[in-house]
Design brief:
four-stranded antiparallel beta sheet; alpha+beta; 264 residues; single chain; 2 domains; 8 strands
Length: 264
């Protein structure tokens, strides 16, 4: 609903218009909103129905003998005296005005309650959608974990533990290599702290060259997929400049393990 329409409905002009309490300019404004905005017209129709219902419920049924009294009065007095009946109309107008005010207040209260309920329903719906997204994300993560566990538990998967040499005694990294489905996973267990201008880099050694398998970082302490290298002889970890190096600095090697078993 437009903010302009919402402000108009909360102003109470529509209620005043129903009971004939608006000024000429207010009447023009209300009728303009009714003709221009379907929401206002719908609220106007609802208020009219409510006003009619309130009028009916507040109406007082006259006693059954009233008609007889009126007929007797007509027989005893001239008909012209029947014109003097302004007082009942006056009191009926007051009663109608009071009923209309009560109805307007009740309608405004019900409208606010409906708006609050609508907001609460929207909030609950958003929370449900968020929960569904969380469930889907968690299911996706769980599926990924299950796939990794299946790879680790595969009888064809071979486990290699790379331990640091004297340059990095606390270094420990585990490689899981499956030559059948040609997959490789790395689990960084611990990496000794080095300069911010340096980084650990993983390599696969072939007969004539070293192939870069990526940077190792303690911030990524989880199973990580790395390229599977056919006919690799060994895995090596070196200390390289920050961001990695194109060529391995073997003089800065901190860990190495043979993969000959993988090639037999």
């Amino acid at each position: 609903m437009e903010k302009k329409v919402h402000t108009f409905l909360e102003s109470g002009l529509l209620d005043k218009y129903l009971i004939g309490a608006t000024t000429a300019s207010e009447t023009v404004e209300v009728e303009s909103y009714i003709s221009k905005y379907p929401e206002v017209k719908e609220e106007y129709n609802i208020l009219q129905d409510h006003l009619e219902l309130v009028a009916k419920t507040q109406a007082v049924r006259p006693p059954s003998y009233t008609l007889d009294v009126i007929l007797d009065a007509i027989d005893d007095k001239p008909v012209v005296h029947l014109r003097s009946q302004p007082k009942p109309r006056f009191w009926f107008g007051i009663a109608a005005s009071v009923a209309a005010l009560i109805f307007a207040g009740t309608s405004y209260m019900l409208y606010n309650q409906n708006q609050k309920l609508l907001q609460e329903n929207n909030t609950i719906a958003e929370e449900i959608f968020d929960l569904r997204d969380d469930i889907n994300n968690n299911n996706g993560k769980l599926d990924g974990v299950m796939r990794e566990l299946m790879k680790l538990n595969n009888p064809e998967t071979e486990k290699y533990v790379l331990r640091g040499n004297g340059r990095a005694e606390d270094l420990k990294t585990v490689a899981y290599i499956n030559p059948v489905d040609k997959s490789s996973l790395i689990d960084v267990v611990s990496l000794p702290k080095i300069s911010e201008e340096q980084s650990y880099q993983l390599w696969a050694q072939l007969q004539d060259k070293m192939v870069n398998l990526g940077i190792l970082d303690m911030a990524d302490r989880k199973l990580k997929s790395v390229p599977y290298i056919e006919d690799a002889l060994s895995l090596n970890i070196t200390i390289e400049p920050k961001g990695g190096n194109k060529d391995a600095s073997l003089e800065n090697s901190v860990a190495e393990i043979s993969l000959k078993k993988n090639n037999e």
